[in-house]
Amino acid sequence: MRPGNFLNRVLKPAALLAGVAVRTTAKGKPTSGLNYQSLRRTSSTLFGAKAKDPKSTQAHMRHADPTITLKIYQQAIPAEVKAAALGLEADLLDRKRKREAEGNNVRVS
Predict the structure, then answer these.
(1) Could you tell me which residues come within 8 angstroms of residue 80 by beta carbon, excluding any fewer than 6 positions away?
(2) Are residues 22 and 47 in the same domain?
(3) pTM of the model
């Protein structure tokens, strides 16, 4: 499958279901602004948060210079933003468990 087709047929519909980068087209139809560049930036940021040094992230991104990685791709995630994201993740997982339990007629307290 071509990268553009995979993006439009698989990644963007998944992003819409997850509520990621949702925007409205000129015709009022919801779409996702997700693209491969945003995936690279996200990968760099998340990898950089776990890596011990910028050189590791540079190698992961296959950049010739770690400065490119740090200036363009990698972004800092403030502690309060990370805490909010973890809280959202917990809420979404809880909702998923409840839906699955309802589908199996199992009562969740």
Answers:
(1) none
(2) no
(3) 0.59
